[in-house]
From TrEMBL:
<keyword id="KW-0540">Nuclease</keyword>
<feature type="binding site">
    <location>
        <position position="7"/>
    </location>
    <ligand>
        <name>a divalent metal cation</name>
    </ligand>
</feature>
<dbReference type="GO" id="GO:0005737">
    <property type="term" value="C:cytoplasm"/>
</dbReference>
<dbReference type="InterPro" id="IPR001352">
    <property type="entry name" value="RNase_HII/HIII"/>
</dbReference>
<dbReference type="GO" id="GO:0032299">
    <property type="term" value="C:ribonuclease H2 complex"/>
</dbReference>
<feature type="binding site">
    <location>
        <position position="99"/>
    </location>
    <ligand>
        <name>a divalent metal cation</name>
    </ligand>
</feature>
<dbReference type="GO" id="GO:0004523">
    <property type="term" value="F:RNA-DNA hybrid ribonuclease activity"/>
</dbReference>
<keyword id="KW-0963">Cytoplasm</keyword>
<dbReference type="GO" id="GO:0043137">
    <property type="term" value="P:DNA replication, removal of RNA primer"/>
</dbReference>
<dbReference type="InterPro" id="IPR022898">
    <property type="entry name" value="RNase_HII"/>
</dbReference>
<dbReference type="GO" id="GO:0003723">
    <property type="term" value="F:RNA binding"/>
</dbReference>
<comment type="similarity">
    <text>Belongs to the RNase HII family.</text>
</comment>
<dbReference type="Pfam" id="PF01351">
    <property type="entry name" value="RNase_HII"/>
</dbReference>
<keyword id="KW-0479">Metal-binding</keyword>
<keyword id="KW-0378">Hydrolase</keyword>
<feature type="binding site">
    <location>
        <position position="8"/>
    </location>
    <ligand>
        <name>a divalent metal cation</name>
    </ligand>
</feature>
<dbReference type="InterPro" id="IPR036397">
    <property type="entry name" value="RNaseH_sf"/>
</dbReference>
Length: 185
């Protein structure tokens, strides 16, 4: 039996895309080290990333940019990214487990419990893939848009990021709908 797990990262960020991962594993896949990405250090996530990719039957990444997030809202952007990640799988699967988001137009058996990334290894593994992928993307964007410290904060609303936002202004990768109350420029 092949089980797919889906999770997202970057939902609450002030900058950058929302990223999802759909990852398919054999039903017996297990490793005690794999947990929700938020419960692992950056170093642990990066160590586990190649291991997870090696053991995945398939995985797909879905990315929705800030312009679309601002147009359709974050929940709809997450759903769109999840559908994109599913469309990029190169294999079929028997069951789907989604972290806390109900999707329409899914023709497979699926569940969407809250905190699935704490309970189902497939979702935990997908969360690690998505987190490492997005963190690396934000580190690359930090080279283009200097001063926001995205290589450290990944676009989240840290004190340093908000300070830089007020001093340097918004960039094309900021979510205007998320910062409208922070930035008065």
């Amino acid at each position: 039996m092949l089980i797919a797990g889906i999770d997202e990262v970057g939902r609450g960020c002030l900058a950058g895309p929302v990223v999802t991962c759909a990852a398919v594993f054999e039903s017996g896949f297990y490793d005690i080290r794999i947990k929700d990405s938020k419960k692992l250090s950056k170093k642990k996530r990066e160590e586990l990333y190649p291991f997870i990719l090696e053991h995945a039957v398939s995985y797909g990444i879905g990315i929705v940019c800030p312009i679309i997030i601002d147009k359709i809202n974050i929940l709809n952007a997450v759903k769109q990214a999840m559908h994109l990640s599913l469309s990029r799988l190169t294999c079929d699967y028997d069951k789907l487990i989604i972290d806390a988001v109900a999707l329409n137009h899914i023709d497979k058996e699926y569940i969407h419990p809250n905190k699935a990334d704490d309970t189902y290894i497939q979702v935990s593994a997908a969360s690690i893939i998505a987190k490492v992928y997005r963190d690396n993307l934000m580190a690359e964007l930090a080279k283009v848009y200097k001063g926001y410290l995205w290589e450290k904060n990944a676009g989240y609303g840290t004190k340093e990021h908000i300070k830089a936002l007020k001093e340097l202004g918004i960039t094309p990768v900021h979510r205007k709908s998320f910062i409208k109350n922070l930035y008065q420029g």
